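Title: [Solved] Mycothiol acetyltransferase 3D structure

Original question kept below for reference.
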Amino acid sequence: MVNQPSSERLQPRQSAEVSALVVRATQHDGVRPLSEQTVLDVRRLPDEPTPPDATPGVHLVVEDHPGEIDARVLGYAHVERSDPPSAEIVVDPEHRRGGVGGALLQQVLEEYPGVRVWAHGDLVPARKMADAFGLRPVRDLWQMARPLSGEWSELPEVDLPEGFAVRPFQVGQDEQAWLAVNARSFAAHAEQGRMTLTDLTDRINEPWFDPHGFLLVEDHNGDGPPRLAGFHWTKVESSGQGPTSGEVYVVGVDPDYQGRGLGKAVTVLGLRHLRACGLDTATLYVDGDNEPALATYHRLGFERSMVDVMYAVDGA
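Solution (posted by the thread starter after getting help):
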């Protein structure tokens, strides 16, 4: 078992190994160990140019036989160089309780003082490791769910203000307008508010992307061109048997339009789209201390189903 030096890009073999490790860990734990952005970073190959608006994350790997063709990745950590830095760690289920996770966490803490570490699902082993290293919870990210079919699945009617209309996102036309409203809507958000054109393009190129599920609400009042007031970006992942999961991916309202009921309206529009896709359940993620959003989602029938916890050293 040997830690490899941290790097901005994984080698193709390592990228494939980490991707397979993530699948094994997800099947074992029932929760995905890495965020979507980290998975995109894992896939980025060494010969791909770094976009000018991107800040590459850092990869840390533990392998059984480093440098060899048949080397197997036993553990992986990713550090996002944000302010403060944030990290995620995953260990092969067959090699846990052998010091792999602790070695990765120790390296992350030493190289990135003040780092905050995500524990997706907040599983008992993660809580024990955090406690052993003196880490304490500093943020909760709730996953919430509500039914789209059967009892308790009724959705309210959608009432848009006069002069407002909804349409699907148009690739090649709406990127900059959406990025501007997204940044304004999530100015205080740790991740969503700093999404770049590269981040958006990466997601547009994902197999799950569907512009018809990326709903834009525009204000057509006034003499000028329509103005983007709010949006609901849904995410539907599928298998060969059809859609498997539906997510309220991002809901945003331009601050100039807040207080007019657009948040609820665009949320319901997206839920109706997910139901039309044949999904039985909708999920979403929201910060546990975002009381206005939690109240809105509770009123729409969402209940907490899982929680991700961010840990940090006391005082960090």
